[in-house]
Specification:
The chain has about 200 residues and is of the alpha+beta class. The protein has two domains: about 10-110 and about 185-200, Glycoprotein, Type 4 Pilin, CATH 3.30.700.20; about 110-185, Hypothetical protein ph0010, domain 2 (Dna Ligase, domain 1, 2-Layer Sandwich), CATH 3.30.1490.150. The chain is built from six helices and eight strands, in the order ααββαββαββααββ. Strands 1, 2, 3, 4, 5, 6, 7 and 8 form an eight-stranded antiparallel β-sheet that branches. The two termini are about 25 Å apart.
């Protein structure tokens, strides 16, 4: 049975194409695309997933689910539509934009709490290029995907700081003993150009 640890490049191509088709269908007809039975069966395992949209200026939308609470087939569709229409940082994507946007799908492993005796140990417990981070403190929570620190050339401490800021917390909040930090890994598939070749992104 498939799971997030044994996805093939063919699986990734199908996931990205389905994300694009889902958004295209929704924007053009305000209806939800119904994938084939085989797609639903192949991706019936629970998994976290994020869908990222980029254009020539950079990020255009990114929404997803960090926890494996939903079947990947369902989570992918919901995240795709939300990335295009519900990201509060951007206006909703229009159908006219789709030919200038690339789609990226990140399938997540289950987040695990990083155990430390002292918060100063956190940088040594994470690896840029492999791990994504979730920071939690009281009612605040923030997540950054594994590919983000690579794109911005951050080291481990900077990655921790920016994840804290993503959670709406002070950048050094990762040093607070009351802060919980989780890590996960991501399998990333993306279009090289809008509607173009889909590849597995090495991070």
């Amino acid at each position: 049975m498939k799971d997030c640890n044994n996805l093939t490049e063919e699986d990734g191509i199908l996931l990205v194409k389905t994300a694009r088709h889902t958004v295209t269908t929704y924007l053009n007809s305000n209806t939800k695309f119904n994938p084939e039975k085989k797609f639903k069966e192949d991706f019936s395992f629970n998994s976290g997933v994020f869908v990222t949209l980029n254009n020539s200026l950079g990020l255009r939308g990114c929404i997803g689910y960090s926890l494996p609470d939903k079947k990947l087939s369902n989570a992918l569709q919901n995240a795709s539509i939300a990335a295009a229409t519900e990201d509060p940082r951007f206006s909703p994507v229009t159908s006219q934009e789709l030919d200038s946007i690339t789609f990226e799908v990140t399938v997540l492993t289950t987040p695990k709490k990083i155990l430390v005796n002292n918060p100063k140990e956190y940088p040594s417990k994470i690896k840029v290029g492999r791990d994504g981070l979730i920071v939690k403190n009281k009612f605040n929570s923030g997540l950054l995907l594994p590919q983000v620190p690579i794109e911005y050339n951050w080291n481990e401490e900077e990655f921790l700081e920016y994840t804290c800021e993503k959670a709406g917390l002070p950048k050094y909040c990762w040093k607070d003993p009351n802060t919980e930090i989780q890590k996960f890994e991501g399998i990333v598939f993306k279009e090289e150009t809008p509607n173009g070749i889909i590849v597995q992104k090495k991070i």
